[in-house]
Amino acid sequence: MSKETKRDLRNVLVMALADGKLTEDERGFIHRLREQLGVSKDEFRRLVKQFKEHPKKVTLPRGGPAAQRAIQLMASMAAVDGQVSDPEQRLLDKLTKWAGLKSKAAEPAAAAQRNQSIEPDQVSARKVSKLSNAIYANFAAWDERERTEKVAELAGFAEASLEGLLRILESYRTPEGAPDALELRTLVVRQLGKLGDTRAAYYLAQQVTIGDMEDEITNAALRCAAAEALGKLVGKDFSPDRAGVKAAREWWLSFGSRQYTSLAI
Question: How many CB atoms lie within 10 A of CB 100?
């Protein structure tokens, strides 16, 4: 990770927590930015550990394109949920002035705050976020049918569905009252298979390839479901069992990764 990439990611984390809370929309923004910048999960974990030691430290260049980019990334972070809080706006104004930039450098945030009309995709994203939170809060109390129906409902919001489902799949968050997130993630991969969006192939393959083939107990249901879902997306008949997982792994390592990794969002 370059010094500039580390700086930009760290600054975005500071902005995300400027108002003392981290929403699902903000989590998604950070996740997408990490991938766009080519930062591995291990690198990001180390960065988060360092960030926690000094959670309010911001590093900005003075003037020029680098400062402009840094401010705009933070402005986009603040505006991602459609509303810029007062603490976020104060921080943006302060940093913009310190960096020697004109106030328009933070316009993405101000524009989002002023905008009274919400685009359809923004509406869907908010509904996905709200439903995701409801799933995490009530999953343990629902029966199997309700759990399946709610995750299926999450898959019904067009473009926003893919990001919402992937956010759950990639999250370390456990539903309240549940021993782990394996059942929820298993339902999610099944919906990803039905969604038909090949951009999910990379993420499903990661679930298939995680773990030791000789130890199929811990994540067996998740791996098997991911193998079957991956097959549906790429036109392969991977059965939801140990044999299907093995076939999916071999296909991914020999061919699939070269074709589908570049499609990941």
Answer: 13
CA distance 210 to 213: 9
Give CA–CA dist 188/165, Å, rounded: 6
Residue found under tokens 């943006």:
92
Note the Cα 47 to chain centre separation in Å.
17
Tell me how far CA of residue 218 lies from CA of 160, 208, 238, in angstroms.
30, 13, 20
Class of domain 3-114: mainly alpha
List the domain boundaries for the chain. 3-114, 121-263
Q: CA geometry: angle at 120 spanning 117 and 121, to 5°? A: 115
- Sequential pLDDT tens for the chain (265 residues): 677 778 888 888 888 877 777 777 778 778 777 777 777 888 888 888 888 877 777 777 776 777 777 788 888 877 776 667 788 788 888 888 887 776 544 554 333 333 333 334 566 777 888 899 999 999 999 999 999 999 999 888 867 788 889 989 988 789 999 999 999 999 999 999 998 888 899 999 989 987 555 454 468 889 999 999 999 999 999 999 999 999 999 999 998 988 888 877 7
CB 76 within 8 A of CB 108: yes
Please list, residue by residue across 165-197, b when 16 or more beta carbons sit within 10 angstroms of its beta carbon and e when fewer do.
Answer: bbbbbbbeeebeeeeebebbbbbbbbbbbebeb
CA-CA distances (angstroms) from residue 149 to 27, 45, 154, 247?
24, 33, 9, 30
Token representation of residue 263: 């499609």
Return the structure tokens found at 176.
Answer: 């309240």
The answer, as to whether pTM is greater than 0.90, is no
Map tokens 């299926």 to a residue: 152
Provide the residue count of the chain: 265
Closest CA to 71 of 47, 43, 46, 103: 103
